[in-house]
Design goal:
The chain is α+β, with helices and mostly antiparallel strands. The protein has seven helices and ten strands. The strands form two sheets. The protein has a six-stranded antiparallel sheet. Strands 4-9-6-7 form a four-stranded antiparallel sheet, with no helix packed on it.
């Protein structure tokens, strides 16, 4: 009887259309996640409020952050990378929103008893020819998160397709953010490895929160208008119980 059952299972495995329907065997295809990332969209009214704060406070104060950043943002007289203070009344409210989103990623995505604490924030004002080379971010804690919020997108980027075609010198990825989890080639992907790379089209209000170690870069664009983003880094603090799971002890 056991041999007969095994033969039935093997037969149905070879018959692709029947394998999932076979009551004798439970098979499911599942993805294996390499990381969790939060992706969302802020409402227009929130984007407008943030941009007004940047226009009325951040830009006039003009506290340069470029000495701590790798971004090559210098092609226009308005090209800049500026400190966005989290210590002002508005900054504290904004930080509260960021911390809530990042903490949700930790607790609901990674299932960690932990909280995120944004400790630095800056704006990037890019114009034609500006770009950001491949890099990752740093935090004061071993685990950390980073975020990107798109606040202004030029028409020359907005009109591009969500899934860029890189052949025929299309220029489809101009101004896009590329996330790079690994450097697998097409040969590796053919061999069933994960590509580990993702092109992100900038869209006003879109926010990404991801682990600090994730390499990323921004391609230059060529056209009129400002590409404005806001970035922040978060320290991650685990609870005592969570630290014990990993053999770590809080100071």
């Amino acid at each position: 009887q056991k041999v007969k059952l095994l033969a039935t299972i093997i037969e149905n495995i070879h018959q692709r259309d029947n394998v999932m329907a076979d009551p004798q065997i439970d098979l499911t295809i599942v993805p294996v996640n390499l990381l969790y990332m939060m992706l969302g969209t802020l409402p227009d009214i929130a984007v407008k409020e943030i941009n007004e704060h940047i226009d009325n406070v951040v830009i006039p104060n003009k506290v340069d952050s470029s000495n701590n950043l790798v971004g090559q943002i210098s092609q226009d007289k308005k090209s800049s990378q500026l400190n966005f203070s989290l210590e002002t009344e508005y900054g504290k409210k904004f930080k509260e929103m960021l911390d809530g989103c990042a903490t949700s990623l930790l607790q609901n995505g990674y299932k960690r008893e932990a909280k995120a604490d944004a400790f630095e924030c800056w704006t990037v004002h890019s114009y034609a020819g500006d770009y950001n080379p491949l890099h990752a971010h740093g935090t004061h804690t071993p685990a950390g998160l980073s975020c990107i919020l798109y606040l202004k997108v030029p028409d020359c980027i907005e009109e591009k397709p969500h899934t860029p075609k890189l052949n025929y010198a299309s220029g489809d990825c101009d101004g896009f953010t590329q996330l790079i989890g690994n450097t697998n080639t097409s040969y590796d992907i053919y061999g069933l490895h994960n590509s580990g790379q993702e092109m992100i089209k900038p869209e006003v209000g879109k926010i990404l929160i991801f682990p600090k170690w994730l390499n990323h870069q921004v391609y230059p664009f060529f056209g009129e208008g400002e590409r404005r983003t806001l970035s922040a880094n978060f320290n991650v603090y685990y609870s005592d119980d969570e630290n014990k799971k990993f053999g770590m002890v809080n100071d």
